[in-house]
Structures are given as structure tokens and as C-alpha cells.
Automatic annotation (TrEMBL):
Keyword terms of this UniProt record: Antibiotic resistance, ATP-binding, Nucleotide-binding, Transport
Species: Paractinoplanes globisporus
MF terms in GO: ATP binding
Record's protein name: ABC transporter ATP-binding protein
PROSITE patterns linked: ABC_TRANSPORTER_1, ABC_TRANSPORTER_2
Lineage: Bacteria, Bacillati, Actinomycetota, Actinomycetes, Micromonosporales
Principal location class: membrane
Subcellular location: Cell membrane
InterPro entries, per database record: AAA+_ATPase, ABC_transporter-like_ATP-bd, ABC_transporter-like_CS, ABC_transporter_ATP-binding, P-loop_NTPase
Pfam families: ABC_tran (PF00005)
Length: 282
């Protein structure tokens, strides 16, 4: 059974449709990123899956249940990391996690969890005295305290500096590797999607316009790899779908006279822009 199965999902706010016939599945243990420009419908989609928003039409199953009707037991299996946990400033880190752990049947031990997210030195600090990055670690701890089978992360690193972002990515990767948890995250950050997710869904204007691994998505946009080299002082660049064959032929023709050889894989960024442009043109 898929961890998430969405078929024909529609969402209408007033007169406006913001999700049109969205269909996708996420298998257990997958880490999937939902990417898309502002207003694409990412937060709307994730909130419907979390059970925080009622959909207009379509079938949605999350861990085998309809999130619109599921009860407490289902909620205990679903972890949510919201854009930021602003309440509870007066609580101390350990106290807050111990309190939340009490709601779950099989929670993390608070001290083990605090160590896992790297907050041991701050365990007795009040939440409002934490830095932005430490707070985000606490957000993750709150999301996973009940040992969820599925974790939703909505723009998890918005506002992070580059080193806090890298630490956060390491934390999530390690958590996923050790727990086997399924993850659906939304992000604007292509690099983040590529680092964390094995699969990327591109949502634009309320429609899925791309679904695949970073590599398979790149292959959708033909001829995007580029080989660059110089020869006799002149620079050359050629697009190719078969860079290894191209380089082999180039070497056979020119041998050691080739200098500064580079192969540029088509980036997820190029693919993303091409898919969004072509979806908007149609
Ligand atoms: N409660 C609401 N009432 C009316 N329209 C809404 C509501 N929430 C979202 N929208 C509209 O639905 C569309 C999708 O919004 P959503 O927040 O899901 O997009 P998003 O992809 O998460 O965008 P962003 O990247 O900017 O966070 C937007 O045009 C937004 O203005």
C-alpha cells in the first residue's frame, strides 16, 4: 500500500481553482520533494494531506486513511513540521518534548531525541532563548517525537543561513536513513530538493508538471548536457544527450590536443525552469 495516494485532487477557494486534478503516489520509505513557484499550490496540497484543510474533490489516502476523517491514532503516526513553532516560548526544551511525548503510544525518549537533533547543550533552555537554527531543530524534534511513519516538512529551511541549512539536511538524512520514515517536503530550494529527495514532483498552477528523479526529470528536457573544451586556443561548447560517447569521439579525433575538458550535466535548475515555462506556455 502506498504511504500517500492522491487521485483527482481539486481545491477551489471561492471561484478560483488552485488545484486541478492532482494525482500522485508516494511509496513507503520514499523522500519526495514538492517543488513549485509561489502560489503553485504546495502548501494547500500538504495541508490537505495533513488533514488541516478540507479538499473540494478527489480521493486522498494517507497511511491508508482519509486525512479528512482520520482520528487520533492516525494523527499519532503522522509527523508535521510546520513553518515554525512559535508557541511555548516559556517552556524548556526537555520539558516541552517530554510533555508532547506523553501524547504518543511509542514516543522517543526526550533526552535521546534532544541528542539526536543536537540540542543537548540547550536542553534546559527556554524555547524563546534558542537561535533560529536551534529552534528549527526543535521543530524537527517536535515533528518526530511520536516516531511517525510519515513526516511532512513544509519549507523546512526557509530563512536559514547556508551552514544551518547544511546541518538541517544532515539531520533529516540521518533520521530518514535510521528510521525508514516516508517524507514529503515542500521547498523553493532546488538544491535542497536534490540533496534530500529521491524523487521530485513539480507543481505549477495547481498541476503536476514533472515527476521523477532529478536525473530522469533532466532527461525529459532533451540535449541538456554540455561538453566544453578548448583546442588550439579556441573554446568550444556542444550540447549532447551522450556526453561519454561525445568525449570518446572527440578524443579519437584530437587526442592530447584537447584542453580544459568539462562535462556539464543538465542541472535540476534548468529542468525546473524549462518544465515550468512549458507548462505556463500551454
Ligand atoms: N485560504 C485561502 N483562501 C483563498 N485563496 C487561498 C487560500 N490559501 C491559499 N490560497 C491561494 O491558493 C493558491 C495556492 O496557494 P499555496 O499557498 O498552496 O501555494 P504555495 O505553492 O504553497 O505557494 P508559496 O510557495 O508562495 O508558499 C494561491 O494563489 C493562494 O493565493
Amino acid at each position: 500500500m502506498s504511504a500517500i495516494a492522491v487521485a483527482g485532487l481539486r481545491m477551489r477557494y471561492g471561484e478560483r481553482d488552485v488545484l486541478h486534478d492532482v494525482t500522485f503516489q508516494v511509496e513507503p520509505g520514499e523522500v519526495v520533494a514538492l517543488l513549485g513557484p509561489n502560489g503553485a499550490g504546495k502548501t494547500t496540497t500538504i495541508e490537505i494531506l495533513e488533514g488541516f484543510r478540507a479538499r473540494s474533490a478527489g480521493r486522498v489516502s494517507v497511511l491508508g486513511e482519509d486525512p479528512g476523517r482520520a482520528g487520533e491514532q492516525w494523527r499519532a503516526r503522522v509527523g508535521v513540521v510546520l513553518q515554525s513553532w512559535r508557541d511555548h516560548g516559556k517552556w524548556r526544551v526537555r520539558e516541552l518534548l517530554a510533555q508532547l511525548a506523553a501524547y504518543y503510544p511509542d514516543p522517543w525518549d526526550p533526552d535521546d531525541l534532544i541528542a539526536a537533533v543536537g540540542l543537548t547543550p540547550q536542553a534546559d533552555q527556554k524555547v524563546r532563548t534558542l537561535s533560529g537554527g536551534q529552534r528549527r531543530r526543535l521543530d524537527v524534534a517536535i515533528g518526530i517525537v511520536g516516531r511517525p511513519g510519515l513526516l511532512f516538512l513544509d519549507e523546512p529551511t526557509a530563512g536559514f543561513d547556508p551552514s544551518a541549512r547544511r546541518d538541517f539536511h544532515d539531520l533529516v538524512r540521518e533520521f530518514v536513513a535510521t528510521s525508514g520514515c516516508t517524507v514529503l517536503l515542500t521547498t523553493h530550494d532546488l538544491d535542497e530538493a536534490e540533496r534530500l529527495a529521491g524523487r521530485i514532483l513539480i507543481l505549477d498552477g495547481g498541476r503536476i508538471v514533472g515527476d521523477g528523479t532529478p536525473v530522469s526529470l533532466a532527461q525529459l528536457v532533451a540535449g541538456d548536457d554540455e561538453v566544453r573544451w578548448s583546442l588550439g586556443g579556441e573554446r568550444f561548447a556542444r550540447p549532447t544527450g551522450h556526453p561519454a560517447r561525445f568525449v570518446h569521439d572527440l578524443y579519437r579525433e584530437h587526442g592530447d590536443e584537447i584542453r580544459d575538458l568539462e562535462v556539464h550535466r543538465s542541472s535540476l535548475e534548468n529542468t525546473y525552469h524549462a518544465l515550468v515555462r512549458s507548462a505556463e506556455a500551454s
